[in-house]
Here is the input.
Amino acid sequence: MFVGHLAAGFALKARVREAPLGPLLAGTAFLDFLFGVFVMIGLERVVVHDPPVFRNWELHIGYSHSLLVSVLYSVALGWLAGRVWRSTSVGVALGLAVFSHFVLDVVSHRADMPLVGLGMNHDVLLGTGLATHPLAFFLVELGWCLLAWRWYDGGNHRLLLMFLVLMAIWANNVFGFVPQPALSSSGQAAFTIFGFVIAGALLWWAARPTEERALRTSP
Here is the structure.
């Protein structure tokens, strides 16, 4: 998933209103930020053989995306957020934002999500393979985005439009309509980080009317 990861931040914000939206969105992408850095330094690897991306890629992501490290990152960042914002609920929300990435990747990926990771040989690999069925994959991600938008603020039509625009752009990765230039592992990693930063910033901007209204009405 891509936009669906960021949607998890809005779902959590709907449940824990005091949690800051920006850090929640960053938290949902944290594992992919690590993935990008780890690929660039040679610790992890991604190879995209042919479009569409999700049906034809090979991932080695045991240091950023395994169940074990996902739990560790989630607990560490959740604890840190709780200390910074002096709120247990905010800490839990930020920790869940980080862990949501692993959950959604298991829901969507082929069996390439390690249980332990950290370079372990013969690891158990998790994943439903939903992404190998492009139409079902796209509809599930779109449905999740719409559900998160509805929970967060179903009256914010600017946010709805932004979700739909991003999903329309993302559709090319899912279906492979237009061939994309081949990227090295480092290029793919940099593109992933760039994509999350831009998409997250656009969704954060689209949510500003809701956030500003909440500030005006808070006691």
User: Anything to note?
Assistant: DSSP finds eight helices and four strands in the chain. The helical segments are 3-15, 21-40, 67-85, 88-108, 134-153, 157-175, 185-206, 208-217. The radius of gyration is 17 Å. Strands lie at 45-48, 57-60, 113-114, 125-126.
